Hints:
The complex is a heterodimer.
Chain A: H1 2-5, H2 11-14, H3 23-44, E1 60-65, H4 74-83, E2 93-101, E3 104-112, H5 121-125, E4 131-133, E5 139-141, H6 151-155, E6 161-163, H7 176-179, H8 184-187, E7 202-204, H9 223-227, E8 233-237, H10 252-258, E9 274-277
Parallel strand pairs in A: 1-9
Antiparallel strand pairs in A: 1-8, 2-3, 4-5, 6-7
Chain B: H1 2-39, H2 54-77, H3 88-108, H4 118-121, H5 128-161, H6 166-171, H7 177-214, H8 227-250, H9 255-290, H10 293-304, H11 308-328, H12 336-358, H13 360-363, H14 387-410, H15 413-428, H16 441-451
Helix pairs in contact in B: 1-14, 2-3, 2-7, 2-8, 2-12, 3-5, 3-8, 3-14, 5-7, 5-15, 7-8, 8-9, 8-12, 9-11, 9-12, 10-11, 11-12
Amino acid sequence: MAREENDTPTPQADAEPSSPPDRRKLLGLLGGGAALAAVASLGGCKTTSPRAEGAQTRRWGMVIDLKRCIACKACTIACKNENKTPPGVAYGVFLEEEAGTFPHVRRTAFFRPCMQCEKSSCSKVCPTGATYHRADGIVAVDYKRCIGCRYCIAACPYGARSFDYGHDYIADAKNGYNLIPSSEYGAAYGTRAKGKSPSGNVRKCTFCLHLQDENGDYREPTACARTCMGKAIHFGDLKNPEATCLVHGEKMQALLAKRSPYRLKEELGNEPAVYYLPA
Amino acid sequence: MTNTLQAANEGRSSRLLGHVVLLALSAVGIWALSVRFSEGLIVTHLTQHVPWGLWISLYIYFIGLSAGSFLLSTLIYVFGMKRFEAAGPLALLQALGCLVLGMLLIWIDLGHPARFLNVFAYWNYSSVLAWESALYLAYSVVIIAELYLVLRPALARRAHSGGPLAGLAKKLAFAGEAEEKAWRSKAARWMLLLGIIGIPIAIGVHGGTGAIFAVVKSRPTWYTGLFPIVFLVSALASGGALLTFLTAISSRLPKAQKLDLVRSLGRLTVGVVALDLLLLGSEMLVVFYGGIPHHVAGWHQIMFGPFWWIFWFVQVGLGAVVPILVVLGKRTGNAIGPLAIAGLLVVFGIIGVRLNIVVPAQIEPEFATLPDAYHHLRFVRGYFPSGNEWLVGLGVVAIGTWLFFVARRLLPLDEAEQLAGDHSTAAAGPPPIHAKAEGRPAAAAGHVSSGGDL
């Protein structure tokens, strides 16, 4: 099993045995081994199409403290504002559920951004590799490459992806609102127009990666974390044990150590980068 | 004499009516397509929870028909089941037509159709859809090559005796009929080779299309190892059924020979349909016994949801039980008409199967209250295709059907069938004593069992 953990072994390196072997047998073995390795790597692949974007030394993540959350949903408004998502497209949503019968009722509520999974289902199924892992763990979408097949939406266990069906808040293209481009991906895709990307693409939360500086560190935290008045959304680096929340300054690892954190649908093995602290 | 003349006239007028209806539907479809392409997918009723709808259902439906038809043709060209041989050319044409329709439908469904080549330019090896795109291409090459080999002798005959495409055939410089005969044995070897290459490709094409869904762990109804197999089996069922129907309505073989062929195809089809029911039962047993809420939800949606009748009436009733009874029936199982209807019912029923595969599994959102989290029509629970989706679907099917019948008339399929028919009776050995013994099931059944080892 350990062999499959290696970085893609080149067949040439394996094909240099000390004694002259039965070539055909060896080739067969190699072929079988390669096939096995391929299947195994399919099961556990971290990045299907990694690209050298973002800081290798970081793993951006969130710790959402549900005890502090007052369910005001300002996070979703901040998200809309920051990314200027059109109607019907939602990056961060707020989910509420009621249970029990009066007077013994209970309400669960939580904010759901993209989980930025370590083993993301979306990038695995994407036929073009348009959705991909950055070095800092954020899952991004290359709108120019995306063909809009929506396989990733079907595959995402968290419902975190939206297809841009082309709805607009204001129909008039000359309206001032429509002249400002969305700031996501550094406003790389310009002003919104019919039939032009990101219309017709699948879109998702990017942990506001346009707020990163050239070193891949955040100039300011994500919109949802920044706006949270209960200080419930902690955002920071999960890789470095000393890293602190960019909004409130607590050590990220310490937050996770104190209370029993959980991740959504842990059983699926996607390894999200978003943790919840129980209410 | 007057009788046949009248019949011919009737045939011509009903054919004319068919053309008119198909062309009208095609025109409506082209208009709907133009709206879809100018406005984008905003014209659909797809949502963020149900991103795949009617067009994807039709896409897997036609890919299934294609793979099923092709696999049936390999029974002839690889496994040497001579009794099906006359149906071979039609099976291949059907496989090609349905593949084109399937690819067209998934292309229409893309958010950026103009970028479809990105799949090949930036091929992502871990995506089943990327593998499928490559397989569809390889598969179309195999089918076209096989179709050419099968039709070549008939085309050559036409080059000399005239008929549609005779000019083209002459331009392709086919040799004389005698040389063509010598060439034919070489072609048989090629057909065997192409068939052998084609079998894993066809299995990959449709089993793989099933795998597109089966690997999606976020939708528990799809996420089973049985799923790709169910796809393959229902593909064979639909392919066999369509072949039964089209052979029954369009073959010009002598009546007895035709009945034999249609009956063999019908029996094969309902056998596969029965196997499909077995797999369905197994799947349902495991899901309901386990009772895991998410697994059950999808099946609950299929069986008791708002479109429960698709499952009970279209998929199981008309699509499986009725055709099985028709083919097994003593009288109905030995007459071309009822057999044709049984085939058509299965073809129709599999549409229900495909719809039930794609849509209900997506209805239950990833989180139960997700539809309430955002108030917009793209976030509502449930899905029903929009008018544009229906018209595009209908139009594309009409265009495909019309092109199929045009190709059926232009290409020398009748001659190829005839040649294959002669060949198969010659190869089957015993003289065709029952050639006029239609209505004598014993003799006919003897012929059926002499043919193969199915």
